[in-house]
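User: My instructor asked us to take a sequence, write out its structure as tokens, and then describe one feature of it. I'm not sure where to start. Here is the sequence I was given:
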Amino acid sequence: RASRELERAVRQPLRQNNTQVRTCSVVSVPAPLGGWNSRSGLAEMKPNQAVALENWFPSTAYCEGRGGTSSHATAMTGNGKTLAVYTPLSGTSKMFCFTASGMYDVSSAGAVAASKATSTSGKWQYVNFGDGTNNYLICVNGTDKPVYFNGTTYVMVDNATSPALTGITTTELIHVFVFKGRLIFIQKATLSFWYLAAGAAGGALTEFDLSTEAVKGGYIVAAASWTLDAGTGLDDYAVFVTSEGEAIVYQGTNPSSAASWAKIGTYNVGRPLGRRCLTRYGGDLVVLTESGAFPLSKAILTAAVSYENALSYNIEPTFVESARSSGTIFGWEATVYPAHSAMIVNVPQAEDGVHTQYVMNTITKAWCKFTGWDAECFAVFNGDLYYADGTVVYKAWTGYSDAGTNITLYGKQAFNYFGDKGRTKHFDMFQPVMAVNGSSFSYLTDIDVDFRDNEITGVATFNVANRAVWDVDVWDECLWAAGLEVVKEWTSPAENVGYCAAGKLKITTNTLQVQWMSSNMMYRVGGPLG
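Assistant: Let's start with the prediction itself. The structure tokens for your sequence are:
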């Protein structure tokens, strides 16, 4: 017994060692899959969001550098303003580009042939419509006669052609859409729409005046068919958006019959951004307004515009500022690109000049910003994305360079306190973890502490050939099994001591696909606040 008591006494420590605390932590955070957030305060952002996310697209699993561009169709006369896609019932689809000098078939790569139709303004609206005999591409611009293309023949339509449109001077028609098998045209600078008989591609047009319904005045900018589940099953509505931000909604089948045509209501949705302000988004419509990008089903729920209902809620200040500074410039439109689960909002800064794009993941609703695509217009053709810039039509989101030039990817993650707001931290190391499909690329990493915003400068190059040797390349690199680990260490305390930190990553490439998986931060805890 005495022996057992002695053994217990030997094992029992003389006192507890309370001075041993963990002084170094390694924390992993996801890549900014939550997307760009320009709305929240820097201290309020979620760890998976980004202060800046340029040319990084936030997918569901990682942030991926956006695809590049390649020249598709060239030698047009005039700058492209509209890409119109013709989809027949059977056979081959076609894509046309309108300029102020003509209508060009840009379906195939290479130099275009002669213009197919007259165009003195490249800013057209279009729709596909079948009358049982022909399947037409119908295009209008409010300046030239409408273009009807049936897969073989191009007709500049007036009151004497076949098909013909009578009852109005056809050069007055500036917008067109299909509602329950009926072609409806918008007359420019008025509150009137004109409609044909159901199933007819031509004939006598009948006017329907909305001036008594638009209490704010203005004129009709755009219109579309809208599918809404009102609680008793799906139904289609005709939506007319005015220049003053009213959406006038009708239900029915025949505007000439009070028994089968009824107004649902007039709603304030915000002043629209251009004639291409409406985009089909699943069964809903997205309307681009000075207040943001709204699903129409949400925009009409309240008497006043609510930013929280906007798809663009996380980038609301940036979106609104862009609308304020360039809302009157041609080029605003939204394009849904299913191949990458993306909705691309084109943001012009100058016509025939610089454009950017605000891009949303349609699955997660996370946003980012694209630069380098000076697109006047977009279209999805045979499942691929295209845009017009000057006299060239480009295939987009393809390859790893912009027609041979570099793409710069920049991301700055949300500031993170790592669970401890009260003590300073000495940040020793930052590790973005990436997957790359090649052997070398240029990159820069850094951090900002305590809400600073310092620019990354310089050039660094990683080479996989050096991965097995420590301290060979800049900032110490190696290759992890999960991907590429790029590590930055600091020697100057002034640049890496603070309460919170945000990792930054900048990559320049024209040859590689890059995926940003996660980021690791190593830090030591300092003293309490104050």
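For the description part of your assignment, you could build on this observation: The first strand starts at residue 25 and ends at 30. Try explaining in your own words what that tells you about the chain.
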